[in-house]
TrEMBL record:
Keyword Signal: yes
Signal peptide (residue range): 1-30
Gene3D superfamilies referenced in this protein's UniProt entry, alphabetically: Bordetella uptake gene, domain 1, Periplasmic binding protein-like II
Species of the source: Piscinibacter koreensis
Family stated for the protein in its record: Belongs to the UPF0065 (bug) family.
Keyword Signal included in the entry's annotation: yes
InterPro entries xrefs: BUG, Bug_dom1
Name listed for the protein in its UniProt record: Tripartite tricarboxylate transporter substrate binding protein
Coiled coil start-end: none
Keywords noted in UniProt: Signal
Amino acid sequence: MPPTHPPRRRFGASIASLLAAGALPPSLLAQTREAGTYPSRPVKVVLPFAPGSVTDLITRILADRLSQRLGQPFVVDNKAGGNGTIGAGAVAHAAPDGYTILFTTNTTHSIIEALLKQVPYDPQKDFTPIARLAGIPSLVVANPALPIASIEQFVAYAKANPGKLRYGFGNSSGQIGGATLERELGIRMVAVPYKGNPQAAQDVMAGHLEAMIADVATAQPFVKAGRLRALAVLTDKRLTLMPDVPTLAETVSPGFDVIAWFGAFGPAHMPTQALDVLARELNLAVQDPGIDAQLRGNGIAPGFVGPAAFGPLLHRERARWMALARSAGIEPQ
């Protein structure tokens, strides 16, 4: 009976000799090198926002976890600018091999087409959705020197001083939230954009702005220290971390509910193995009690949605955020 193993040995030997001779086509060479267990080398994690932001905090917590679990460095690369389009565009056009991934928010994938006329990628077609990982709630905060003590008094003060109050925002949630409030409540303020919420918070505390829409992770330490006054959260339910802060919905704007999402993507056509490994490990990460406590302690709401459900969720979120932008009167620039 003829042996069954020699043909396999001859095939393996021929591949090895071709590799040694550099005779394989580049595409087959790349596939051969990556055929082992993923990841076999460091992975670049692109974050399209600035260091020190709440997204930077989440990204570094999860990248560290992935590095520990998978035995390869997951290296965070902050590529801020262009409302996140610089970093997101870099991943959209990266090799779809699983070694360049994107951690981002609704800014680059749900709302960007309402903010910019020219977007250097297609949010729907140029990415592989890996997972939705968390929600990032925001709130209205003010300089304590402002002669108000509640969101109702803030609105009354804004109406009595049209065009005089300056408020900052460092992301799309703050931009949409502030513009929606102005439109719904009939108030007129001066919106001041920032590259990130930490910079805007510093200017509120310094008196250069009267208020801002901030994520909870940025604002909470300053609220505790008495350097910022928390007026209302943008979600429709109060936050466990700040239970005494009312919602906009229960005070001045019934039905108001805005929360950003945070998720992970790869380029389109990312290998199934890489997708499965990353989704599995990220699911385990957000369920880890230590990571869960660390995120919730910063006002972040962990919540995993896997690849199969994340795609449809993205379509719904895009429709919701685009509608919010239109109703707020925001025009793409």
